[in-house]
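Hi support team,

I'm filing this because I wasn't sure whether my run with calcium ion finished correctly. The job status page said complete, but I'd like someone to confirm that the output block is well-formed before I use it downstream. Pasting the exact inputs I used:
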Amino acid sequence: MITVMGMVVLAGTKALDADTRGTRELRGRTFAKRLAQMGLEVARHPAIKIDDPLLHYTLPDGSGYDVRLTTEEARLNINALLASGDKVLLPRLLASWGLSPEAGSAVIDSLRDWIDEDDKTSLKGAEKRDYQKAGLAGLPYNRPFREVDEMLLVRGMDLVSKLRPDWREWFTVLGDGRVDVNQARPELIALIANVPVERVMPLITFRAGKDGAQNTRDDNRLASPVQVAQLLGVYQPQTVELLTRWVQFAGPIKRLESTGRCGDVRRRLVLIVQNQQAIWRGELPPHHGS
Ligand SMILES: [Ca+2]
Ligand SMILES: [Ca+2]
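And here is everything the job wrote out:
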């Protein structure tokens, strides 16, 4: 009797323990999300400056939020890139992520087949038949991507995602396709200019201004393709032309990224704003690395 009672009590305590941990974790997740939401509400106010102290907030227990303001054009617009018939940037990007030329062109052909209206499979691509064979009905959508996440449905993108878990951070489906060089990450500028990423550092240093930090009031703004080419030490006419075609200097679509934290829990909420209107909101996995 006593043994059985003891076991019941023990089991009860264990369940209670598990509950408490579960509840604590849930509370942490909820609280981190609330903090991230708070950050977004503060950040979207028109009076907020790019280096406003209100973009960062910490409570005495260490929980809080950090908001990063950038532009959506700091990313590659996958629809614009595919529509342009690009044969340079996407292959270069996938190769830099470790895809073989064959695997890379298969992914690119499949991305093209996904957005073109017809059902004719391009060389290494994938259309309705190919997805059906794999047991996937209703694919491809045969229209431009409306969400970055839709790209994951394309044949071969699982491999990309395995090699580059942060692949989403490179793409957008918004904007006119030209990359905002005042906000883009060094690796993306290196990709467009076809230079090693070290060669982009003088440009990053210039952009950061005297204090060495991006997104502060002393930042310098890049203003012309020629200036960009000079800072990168790029003089080849073809590359300069590519630069001129694919860059801009102030993307009009604002991207607000707010990370709320509570204990070990991080939650990242994104709000995209155009002409003061929210056009997309969602949650993404917390950053790895960048
Ligand atoms: Ca198609
Ligand atoms: Ca600065």
